[in-house]
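Regression test case RT-17, inverse folding.

Input:
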């Protein structure tokens, strides 16, 4: 079974692009930032075992992400995937999957969709969103019916103390997708942890 993971935005996405060099000079860096980190995405293949082929999509220009660029690259991947596939998205990668699958019909069958720390950009919160999501065309429609129709199962994973994506985003999704499953965590921030309890079991189920 193929599992495609789409990561979130890059580590410099929050910096001022108008004067990027100056913003880099102001950004704090530590030795820990330079060390390779293990997280649930890198450990997923080991957790799932030999019956799963875990693929990691490197999305274009992740430090200044534009939805249409990501969509164009994703469409290059779809013909390479098996007829039945599992999709996983983290942060902006999760929002991308929500937006794309709610606006576009694909020929692959989505066995399950797993969304970790997904921002919510529905019409009722457009005015509250930061400029990067708006400028990058990341706003979603209010109707997620096509998303629900294309995915056999949908799971959300969110920590109540996420500093970047409020837990209310997960609650907003659940209001629109009541048949989805929500896994709630505490003390895990933006879910950049080594293991994400429940994810591998949800995929196998």
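Golden output:
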């Amino acid at each position: 079974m193929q599992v495609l993971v789409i990561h979130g935005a890059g580590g410099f996405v929050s910096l001022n692009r108008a004067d990027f060099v100056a913003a880099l000079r102001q950004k704090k860096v530590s030795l820990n930032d330079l060390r390779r980190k293990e997280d649930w995405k890198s450990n997923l293949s080991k957790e799932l075992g030999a019956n799963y082929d875990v693929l990691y999509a490197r999305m274009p220009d992740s430090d200044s992400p534009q939805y249409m660029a990501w969509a164009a690259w994703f469409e290059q991947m779809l013909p390479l995937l098996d007829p039945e596939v599992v999709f996983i998205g983290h942060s902006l990668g999760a929002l991308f999957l929500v937006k794309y699958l709610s606006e576009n019909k694909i020929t692959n069958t989505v066995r399950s969709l797993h969304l970790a720390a997904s921002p919510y950009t529905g019409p009722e919160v457009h005015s509250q969103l930061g400029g990067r999501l708006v400028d990058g065309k990341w706003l979603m429609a209010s109707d997620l019916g096509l998303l629900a129709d294309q995915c056999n199962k949908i799971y959300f994973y969110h920590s109540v103390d996420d500093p970047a994506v409020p837990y209310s985003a997960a609650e907003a999704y659940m209001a629109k997708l009541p048949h989805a499953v929500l896994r709630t965590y505490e003390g895990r921030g933006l879910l950049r942890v080594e293991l994400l309890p429940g994810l591998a079991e949800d995929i196998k189920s």
